[in-house]
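User: Can you predict the 3D structure for this chain?
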Amino acid sequence: MRVSKEFKVGLLVLLAVFFLYMGVNFLKGNSIFGQNRQYFAVFNNTSGLVSSNQILVNGVQQGTVAEIKLNPENPKQVVVKFTISNDDILIPIGSKVKLISSGLLGTKALELQLNFDPVVIAEYVENGDTLSATIEKGISDQISEELLPLKHKTEELMQSVDNIVLSINSYWDTSAIYVIDESLYEFRDGISKFGDLARSLTVLVENESRVIDNVLNNANDITKNLANKSEQIENVIDNFSAISDTLAASEINSVIMEAKTTLSQLNELMMKVNNGEGTLGMLMHSDSLHNELVETNQSIQNLLDDMEANPKKYVHFSVFGRKAKTPK
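Assistant: Here is the predicted structure, written as structure tokens:
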């Protein structure tokens, strides 16, 4: 049986279409002979993500982005459908999808961040479920965040510089020239006074140089005299040393001990006197002597009074030898 040319051409076209389909799916990362698992993620902005972009797990491609479309219920959201071609990858509940830049040129990709937190019973996301989505900050966003505070500080610095310049201009226009002139005048006056002081110091030094020379000469003479009298000074020191040795060798200690003994005996005597012991103590502590002296004095006074009243009783004169009568 002969095969027509038309059949051969049709068969080649069908084979070409089949291989083209398989090649496109292979390039997209889809399974050629099996059914890939499909998942969804919702973003506010996909930032340049397109279909056939990679799905990465720890930097290794495990699938591709299948479809990107707006959420019909909320046009502010973008729904991304992606497929996982590796059947060995199980997605635990709590895993996230993060939109990242996979190259320096800004190529976007989805990074599947698996949840490895320990759990009692492992549960996994089913085919067709929606995963939580986040967006990585791009280089431009990071640069903007880093440069924005610097920009604000630069603006504040420029404003401060402008204020300083305005202040300097206003000050210069009003009183700066006058103040500078006054400062220069005071500076010149200070230099002049400093010159006068220097001249006065020069004159003073010249006038007092003779006095200083005399003082130095006198000091030199004193040192020479001390050097000449060194032997005499040594003799004086030796004499003082001999005197001190003599005093040390003398009986000063015995004299001091005798003085201490005498003072001790005197203290004992005074204690006995204070205690009323002995004649002197009894005299000092007893009033009998005082009373007797008072009585004796009174008797003498009575005798004198009686002699004054009756002198003939004690003294009489007889010219002719006749005795006077004694009054009764």
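The mean pLDDT is 78. The longest strand covers residues 60-70.
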